[in-house]
Amino acid sequence: MSLVKVMPVLSVYRQLDISDKRLWRSMHHNVGCMIVELELSRETAVGVDELSSRRCQRYVTVFLDMWRQQEPVTLRPGHGKGTITPFSAFLAGQSGEPDNVIEVVCDMSQTFPEQVTENLSNAEVTVDWFHIVKNFTKVLDAVRRKDHREKGHLKALR
Question: What is this structure's pTM?
Answer without folding.
Answer: 0.65
